[in-house]
Design brief:
By secondary structure, the protein is α+β, with helices and mostly antiparallel strands. It is 35% helix and 36% strand. It has a four-stranded antiparallel beta sheet with strand order 2-3-1-4.
């Protein structure tokens, strides 16, 4: 299994409609071959601003690489770069 977790800190001044549209776009990225689980949620803790959390599990690193190189991912990343800063954690998770 391959894990991919991203925290998007939406920039101040970005409207609710834009945040909702971004969350919808991120959720649609989970419809890719090799995705085992996918969640995108708005953080309940607003002390640091608006945070979108994306939590994904892929079948393996190859599936992740294919997803990451997809046009849909590149387009979503370009859009998110316009409205947010983000932190990414990727790791191989042993299957038990």
């Amino acid at each position: 299994m391959f894990r991919h977790v991203v925290l998007f800190r939406v920039r101040d001044g970005v409207g609710t409609d834009d945040v909702d549209a971004a969350a919808k776009t991120l959720r649609e990225l989970g419809r890719h071959v090799g995705v085992v689980s996918w969640a995108v949620e708005l953080s309940l803790d607003g002390r640091k601003g608006t945070i979108l959390a994306q939590d994904a599990t892929f079948a393996d690193a190859k599936a992740f690489g294919e997803w990451r190189s997809s046009d849909a991912h590149r387009e979503a990343a370009a859009h998110m770069a316009q409205i947010s800063d983000w932190w990414i954690a990727d790791w191989e998770q042993p299957t038990t």
